[in-house]
Amino acid sequence: MIDEKGRLFGKISILDLVIVLAIAVAIAGFAYKMTAGSRVLAIKGDTAVTLTVELKGVRGFTVDAAQVGDKVYETHGSYLGTITGVDTKPNQTPMDLDDGRQVLATNEGRFNLVLTLESEARVTDEATYIGGTRLVAPGGEIKVQTNRLQGTAVVASVAPIA
Amino acid sequence: MQENTKKKRKIGALDIIIVLVIIAGLFVAYKVLFDKQGSIVGGGSTPITYTLEMRNKDQAFIDGLKKEPGDKIYDNLKGGLLGTITDIEVVPYEDLSDDKVNGNRVLTKVDGLYTVYITVEADAAVTDGSTSIDGYEMLVGKEVFARSTTFASSTYCVKLDWEGTK
Fold first, then answer.
1. Looking at the predicted structure, is the pLDDT value of residue A161 above 80?
2. Which range is least confidently modeled, A78-82, B35-39, B106-110, B130-134?
3. Looking at residue A33, what is its pLDDT?
4. Which of A31, A53, A115, B134 could bridge to B28 as Cys pair (CB 3.0-4.6 Å)?
5. How close does chain B come to A72, measured CA to CA in Å?
6. Bridge partners of residue A145, in order along the sequence
7. Cβ contacts (< 8 Å) between A103 and chain B: which residues?
8. What is the tens place of the pLDDT at every residue in A63-110?
9. Chain A partners of B37 at a C-beta cutoff of 8 Å?
10. What pLDDT does A118 receive?
11. Helix/strand/coil (H, E, C) string of chain A?
12. CA B86 to CA B67: how far, in whole Å?
């Protein structure tokens, strides 16, 4: 099978073959890593979920750019869901007052933008995955974007749609 | 000599494997670069209008700024063309200041400083998940290092619209 020159069937150098296979494995691994999230949107067993994320301390222009029906993606990543609700809350951060108290001060012109997304998730005993492999859990940070806006969000909740 | 030429023209199994690997690599590159965010709206060239905000600029900067539209605007990092300026607006700069009696932060005008809004028209590829001008992603909230004939500055995209926008 391997001749005296180290060629398989007299044609392919074993060394070349090993190099080519190594390159192919590296490419396959890279491809899996980069596209795994976008492959699985509705595999068997996926559950419809409501994912709520919050972009804290944004200005009015970001609020205006968030619209019901827009699709949300993780920045340079997979599809997360479609916006079904847009809401705002006052943005508050701690402040030390002159009298020594510490309070949560409301920041004028800043908002916490709450986006409700309808999504498909794989729910296991251990975790909830959106887009196949993206683990989402309350408190986790995620960079999001639509075709209009981008920002950093915190996952507020993820719950199956009844 | 003739024998050598004949040998060079032979296509071996290794050649085929290498070609397949290259094709696979190109496919992966395509998937990574272009196939992430769904279908293109408007056939890949949609006229868009966006606004860049430059904050905290002093009087000297404002004096040197060309106020008439028509200039081109470029990405100051890679040099790509980002569109044509259609409007320039200068307003007083406001920043949050602490009200340590009532426990609020309020927007207060800062004397001698300004915010500049530059409206730009460009053709963009609009997909479900991104809007990009000649490969440069333009989204509200994104920091854009922009330059024109009379300025170079860090800016933020604060508004983005295209025809038929909701």
1. yes
2. B35-39
3. 62
4. A31
5. 7
6. A73, A150
7. 103
8. 999 999 999 999 988 899 999 999 999 999 999 999 999 999 999 999
9. 73, 147
10. 96
11. CECCCCEECCCEEHHHHHHHHHHHHHHHHHHHHHHHHHHCCCCCCCEEEEEEEEEEEECHHHHHHCCCCCEEEECCCCEEEEEEEEEEEEEEEEEECCCCCEEEEEEEEEEEEEEEEEEEEEECCCCEEECCCEEECCCCEEEEECCCEEEEEEEEEEEECC
12. 10
User: Of chain A residues 88-147, which have a CB less than 8 A from chain B?
Assistant: 93, 95-98, 103-110, 145-147
- Residue A16 to residue B14, Cβ atoms within 8 A: yes
Q: How far apart are the first and last CA of chain B?
A: 70
Task: State whether B141 and A23 contact (CB < 8 Å).
Answer: no
Cα–Cα dist B88/A145, whole Å: 27
Give me the residue from B31, B105, B130 closest to A107, CB to CB: B105
Residue B34 has pLDDT above 60, yes or no: no
B13 has pLDDT over 90: no
